[in-house]
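Bit of a strange request maybe. I'm writing a small parser for structure token strings and I need a real example to test against, not something I typed by hand. Could someone generate the tokens for this chain?
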Amino acid sequence: MDIEEIKSELTNLRKEIRRHNKKYYDDDAPEISDFEYDKLMTRLKELEAEYPEFVTATSPTQIVGGSARRTVGKLVPHDVPMLSLQDVFNKDEVENFVNDTLAKIENPEFVVEEKIDGLSLALKYKDGELFEAVTRGDGSIGEDVTENARVIPDVVQNLKDTPGYFEIRGEVYMTRKDFAAVNERQERLGLKIFANPRNCAAGTLRRLNPGIVAERKLSMFVFNLQAVEGAEISSHVDAYEFMKRNGIKIIHNYKVCKNFSEVWAAIEEIGNSRQNLEYDIDGAVVKVNNFNQREILGATGKFPRWAAAYKYPPEEKETILRKIELSVGRTGRVTPTAVFDPVNLCGTRVERATLHNQDFIDSLDIRIGDTIKVYKSGEIIPKVSGVIFEKRPSDSLPFKFPETCPVCGHSLEREENAADYRCINSNCPAQVENHILNFVGRGAVDIKGLGENAILKLIDEGFIKNVSDIYKLKDRREELIEKKIFGLAKNTDKILAAIEESKKNSPAKLLTGLGIIGVGSSVAKTLIQNFGGIEELSKATIEDLKNVPDIGEILAGHIVKFFGDPENMEILNEFRIAGFNFKDDMPKNSSTSEIAGKVLVLTGTLEKYSRNDAAKLIEERGGIVKNSVGKKVDFVIAGENAGSKLSKAGELGIKILSEAEFEKLLQAD
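Reply from user aminoacidic:
Good idea to test on real output. This should exercise your parser:
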């Protein structure tokens, strides 16, 4: 390999690692496993060690992986840098770390403990009271998430002892049980599914709403003392004892070791216990116990020299793929699952693994009858890593998705610019729960009291099979009371009255609830304003729809396909019989208001109006409210703490209005 090839590989490696750092730390959406990431980083370190003249100050090997984003509160500089840990991947590297330490300091003790897979957080106490919680960010500056941290049960608000200043560092995580509950709810509501507990914990902690943080049941272990004033603490173990006295949850089952053999035994013990833990770990950490000795060893710009993180290799086994099952989720997404001869991985029996989508199957060329390699990602999620082609049967055939849904028989469609296939039938039995939840939600017909539990009971007991059945429940009042679907008679009557009241909704609300792909509340309002009602919209052609602002050919196709389905038209007729209003009751764009026909985006917090109230005022004057900033937006109304939408509006040259200017626009005739 010549010098130019080396430079090219270094450049490409750094670029790829930076991209994965952003996906992992900033977007909470990693695209590759830790093992695959570590291989990239190891290769970069090897090249930089061999060619030190090409090492740059901005190389991923020289800086902490993440960046600080202003998503929750202010950005806060760390008094004590929150560094990464140097990674080691085998027994020899652990031994080298221990021996190097023994050569530099006299009789050190090592503490070996679990490395929790979560999001690092610093907690700061003044006179025993928590006053600030800050994420790691880029190691020098993090995000203030204090209000969110206060609702995490493991975060202690007040210490029994009251040192003048006390700063600790821990890892915010989710148990596997709590993670599964969050994803189950996300799936039911048709929202984004989190890839793993770490992503969910990180994304949740950065939310603007502490109520969501509390609902998702985050947990936290503390693993280090960062700084202390007013208390004498000389070692890591002493710090843990102090924390335990003050009710702080620390990493449990840590071991104090004196030499390499004890350190390695402790690492193996943690490794053997991984499958029995209720949370994910991504390794074991080896730390020097004594704080004075840590000072002697010091740190690089990226990690302390007194600690190392051992990464367990993924356990991989061969097995034979017997079949590929297709399942339809609540949102209509079709997921292929590999079913193979059982193997034992990380102490558990495994015989199924997701194959994600057709692209993934094609990329590995997976076929039924193949001998495949299976491993556990994050020590918990079974995955297929590849095919042993030498063992492939001679009569094997490539696997292709069917054209129809395996549940209802309707057509499957591949999403534009995506890898997933979906069943386009909103009345598919696999999707009915999600469809009904969307229909009764606040953004659609908004039926008060008809929540998730009640809908599940109604489906299970056979009361409803599609959304129009909701309006036939009044005829089965006695059965509902007898089976206590809504409770006693008083609550049953209250919900039935709310169902009847929902018929008075605007046709845009009904259209939103129909579950047409790409038609949310904003698009629904635009369509009704332009066509005058659902009846007229149902007769529109693709060309008619493309003449509407922000309606492209793909979305137009989804709309035409929906109204061309006899089953959907039958349900619409049920709504008509039930007494729904199909005609537009909103002002047309011929209004004399300066807002009429204009597209507006709201961002930040307004002092006098809630987001819903402001949107309603705009729509009453014939304006259109959008959620995202694009070239066709006329105005952006910016309140306090306006975010990225404000920046994008500036880039596109869109007129930005203050709240006072917005009020003047509302009042203008």
